[in-house]
Design brief:
Elements: H1 14-19, E1 33-39, H2 43-53, E2 60-67, H3 75-88, E3 95-97, E4 146-151, H4 155-163, E5 171-177, H5 221-224, H6 227-234, E6 240-243, H7 245-248, H8 255-262, H9 268-282, H10 289-292, H11 297-308, E7 321-330, E8 390-392, E9 399-407, H12 420-430, H13 440-443, E10 463-469, H14 473-484, E11 490-497, H15 508-517, E12 525-527, H16 559-562, E13 606-610, H17 635-638, H18 641-648, E14 653-657, H19 659-663, H20 668-676, H21 682-700, H22 708-712, H23 715-721, E15 730-738, E16 750-752, E17 758-765, H24 768-780
Parallel strand pairs: 1-2, 1-4, 2-3, 4-5, 5-6, 6-9, 10-11, 11-12, 13-14, 14-17
Antiparallel strand pairs: 7-8, 7-9, 15-16, 15-17
Family: Belongs to the IUNH family.
Protein name: Inosine/uridine-preferring nucleoside hydrolase domain-containing protein
InterPro entries: Inosine/uridine_hydrolase_dom (IPR001910), Ribo_hydro-like (IPR036452)
């Protein structure tokens, strides 16, 4: 029902087909410049993309968009956002690439279809991997020249260039937003009249990593997030133009520009851009938005387009930025080189350095291991690590690059807009040519924001239940079941989302859509902490580690599938309630947004815990398949073992539905067959569609071997609601505890401890046939069925 119902999975290397096609000279008379944009889909990226889409297609043709899922966004949400934006602009012809399941061998061999979910140095054979940097947040010969715009981390482009050196000649030019060469950060400075107690933050740093400048004061985000990839791109031999923060720091979003933008709402794309910018301003963490939010990616796009508009423009003449050639490199590791301290996967433990790199060379030093790396951290000072620094150097390791040094002033000195690019940006967005076809309201003129809130005043409500879910496929199937149980048996009071498991926090929209479909817009949905216990950074709480959640694949069978509900999320009705950035001073925000009443809420007598595994033998193993050293834990316990330990040490009564019980009722053929025999309510049809998708994927692709894990998750809901004991459940009581020592090989494991364990009621068996029939019949019951399908 939303803008597009495309399956949110595509292959990254659309770049190959775009760059390796028809042999015509790109940019020559009569032929447009062909552009591929690699983006991390942040707010400023959307402004840049819409700027390009507004240009005359006879001069500038956007051929494709590849998504850098290694920085500010998650692949599943990003790809649908790009699809929607292109659909709004009437440009479904533009290819969109994301993901890829290939890997990199230990010797550095790059397999086909590597996804770009992880920094190159962390990329193994799967899409499971660490967040070392993210913690801070074309085939064929003789193809047409294509220009690449990189406005995110460089992973995708670097992998393409490293794996397809014969196609470099088809890349005419690369324009990059990022890095800091001679930059001096203008934010975090003490006022001139400040007292001696004022401690400057990033003031004067080369970099802009506001989350970790005490560890690294040199890097800019886009380069830092995969500095080895950035090195490969800049040293590729392809002509490079860099628009670093040296230049973008000189074009902040001013209050005058913001006001002028608010008055320039002539097109749907202008309205979308302004709303995106406004919510960023309204939710900014301090009162310095107008001095710390810059025209990053859209400014680079404007500079690049202006340069490309002029033939034979070797000196980069343009309307918007002053340019200068500089000799630079990208720092990927720290001196002294040639050491082995466990931080550098390119060399540590390798008989031959990965990618045949030079021993003792520039890549062989200490690599920053993450937030607050003790070898880099300087308390109340400037961090020592330089990973990601675009450093000006001389000598054989330098590359001559055209660099933007500062934004040009407005030629009209009487204007309130002090930069020339401000004028051009607003002019382009308001033009009627290449304008958006519609917004949501005009696309669906009969859509009404109706909420369904049932009246239960005359009913005796059953046991109050709060459902805590991590938004795996099985959790959504269990939610459908709980919503079908009569309210006289189960009174679902609220849902709490744990974004530390199988899905990103923004996937909460699927919950809202299911509740809307089932006529239960009255149920509040709260969001829990985005980091597992003890993983939040103690200095800057908005960032943190991924010690446990790194076990979830980014690709197939992991985040990209969960965030899109395996491509089925957009088959659900559209709820008026959405995940939102709206906020309120009543809840600690620095200011009210336009609609503080829409703020996303944050996140008992008895607790039913689905998960955990109590091993009875050496062969009775858990299901954390992505951490080979941990053989006996179950995912729900492993993803936040400290939290699980806290729950099991509390005074509440606990009923555990362990993995062994779930495995007894994990037959796709049986559950699908039973659903086929029941009444075809909308919830039956959707659940069957989802289950059939999981079953099919498991049969045809080994990356989906764990799909029955999600099927077993339905059991907890069915047991909870089985008041008549139709399941003939059998329980046993054991003293157990959860291991959470910080050792990944044992964290999340449940052991029986006669002395120190908590007595827990554990489900050991159910009647399997009764379970399948109870589940299917409840979904097929017309009572409490969907209000909208």
């Amino acid at each position: 029902m939303l803008l597009l119902q495309r399956l949110a999975v595509a292959v990254l290397f659309i770049t190959i087909s775009i760059i390796g096609t028809t042999a015509v000279i790109g940019g020559a008379e009569g032929n447009p410049h062909r552009i591929v944009v690699d983006t991390d889909v942040d707010t400023d990226d959307l402004l840049a993309l819409l700027y390009i889409l507004k240009l005359n297609t006879s001069q500038f043709q956007l051929e494709g968009v590849t998504i850098s899922a290694n920085s500010w966004t998650n692949a599943g949400h990003a790809v649908n956002q790009i699809y929607d934006l292109l659909y709004m602009m009437g440009r479904d012809d533009i290819a969109v690439g994301v993901g890829g399941e290939g890997g990199i061998l230990p010797n550095g061999t790059i397999l086909p279809n590597v996804g770009g979910y992880l920094p190159i140095i962390e990329q193994g054979l799967t899409t499971v991997g660490n967040c070392r940097y993210r913690q801070t947040i074309p085939q064929g010969l003789g193809g047409r020249p294509t220009t690449l715009f990189i406005i995110g981390a460089h992973t995708n482009v670097a992998i393409f260039l490293m794996n397809n050196p014969h196609l470099k000649k088809n890349v005419e030019h690369i324009y990059i937003m990022g890095g800091g060469v001679r930059s001096s950060n203008p934010t975090g400075c003490c006022p001139k009249n400040a007292s001696s107690s004022c401690v400057p933050g990033q003031c004067g740093n080369h970099g802009n990593m506001f989350t970790d400048y005490n560890t690294n004061s040199y890097a800019e985000f886009n380069i830092f997030l995969d500095s080895f990839a950035a090195y490969q791109v800049i040293h590729s031999g392809v002509p490079i133009t860099l628009v670093p923060i040296d230049a973008s720091n000189t074009i902040p979003i001013t209050e005058q520009f913001f006001d002028a933008f608010e008055k320039t709402q002539d097109t749907y794309e202008a309205q979308y851009c302004f709303k995106s910018l406004k919510i960023s301003r309204d939710t900014w963490f301090d009162d310095e938005f107008y001095t710390s939010y810059f025209m990053w990616d859209s400014f680079m796009t404007g500079v690049a387009i202006s340069i490309m508009s002029k033939p034979n423009n070797h000196n980069g003449e343009n309307e918007f930025a002053e340019m200068e050639y500089m000799n630079i490199t990208v720092i990927t590791s720290n001196k002294p080189y040639g050491i082995s301290d466990g931080s550098n996967p390119l060399f540590d433990g390798q008989k031959v350095p990965k990618f045949n790199l030079q021993k003792g060379g520039v890549h062989s030093g200490h690599m920053q291991t993450g937030l607050r790396d003790p070898l880099c951290f300087v308390k109340n000072g400037k961090g020592k690590c330089q990973d990601g620094y675009t450093k000006e150097i001389s000598g054989p390791d330098s590359v001559k690059v055209l660099v933007a040094t500062k934004a040009k002033p407005n030629r009209d000195v009487t204007s309130s807009l002090d930069r020339e690019y401000f004028i051009r940006f607003l002019h382009v967005l308001k033009q009627p040519q290449q304008t958006g076809k519609f917004n949501f309201t005009t696309q669906f003129p009969y859509y009404k924001e109706v909420t369904y809130k049932p009246d239960f005043h005359n009913k005796l409500l059953g046991k109050p239940v709060v459902f805590d879910m991590d938004m795996s496929a099985g959790d959504f199937l269990a939610l459908f079941y709980l919503l079908k149980v009569p309210v006289q048996v189960i009174d679902l009071k609220a849902i709490i989302v744990s974004p530390t498991g199988w899905a990103n926090a923004a996937t909460i929209d699927i919950i809202y859509d299911i509740l809307h479909m089932m006529g239960r817009d009255d149920i509040p949905v709260g969001r829990g902490d985005v980091f597992a216990t003890d993983q939040t950074d103690p200095i800057f709480s908005a960032v943190g580690g991924c010690k446990y959640v790194k076990a979830i694949p980014h690709g197939s069978g992991g985040y990209i599938d969960s965030d899109t509900l395996y491509g089925l999320a957009r088959n659900l009705p559209h709820s008026p309630r959405r995940y939102t950035g709206e906020n309120s001073v009543k809840f600690g925000a620095p200011r009210d947004t336009d609609h503080p009443e829409l703020r996303q809420p944050l996140a008992m007598e008895e607790v039913y815990v689905l998960g955990g595994h109590i091993s009875t033998s050496a062969d009775d193993k858990g299901n954390v398949f992505s951490v080979p050293s941990n053989q006996y834990a179950e995912f729900n316990m492993f993803l936040d073992p400290l939290a699980a330990k806290t729950v099991f040490e509390s005074d509440v009564n606990i009923t555990l539905i362990p993995l062994s019980a779930q495995r007894r009722v994990s037959s796709f053929a049986t559950v699908i067959g039973t659903l086929l025999k029941t009444r075809k309510t909308p919830e039956v049809l959707f659940s069957k569609h989802l289950l059939s998708t999981l079953d099919r994927l498991k049969q045809i692709n080994n990356r989906y071997h764990h799909m029955d894990t999600f099927l077993g998750e339905i059991l907890g809901a069915v047991v909870l609601a089985d008041k008549s004991l139709t399941l003939k459940p059998k329980f046993e009581v054991k003293p157990i505890k959860v291991l959470a020592s910080g050792d990944e090989s044992s964290d999340g494991k449940i052991v029986v401890d006669e002395k120190h364990g908590k007595l827990v009621r554990i489900l050991s068996n159910v009647d399997e046939n009764a379970y399948y029939n109870l589940y299917a019949n409840k979904l097929g019951d017309q009572y409490q069925s969907a209000k909208i399908a």
